[in-house]
Amino acid sequence: MDPFITDLCSFAESEGSRVPELEQPMALLADSLGRVSRLEQSERLSLPVVDDHLAAALDVAEGPVGDLLRNILPDAGWAQPYPEHVGEPDMDVFRAGFGYAPVVGSPENSYRGDAFPLYGSEEVFVGAVLQGPNIVYPSHVHRAVEVYWAASGTAGWQKGDVWSRHGPGATILHEAGVRHATTTGDEAILMMFAWVTDPRSIPVIVRL
Ligand SMILES: [Fe+2]
Question: Ligand 1 center to residue 75 CA distance, Å?
Answer without folding.
Answer: 23
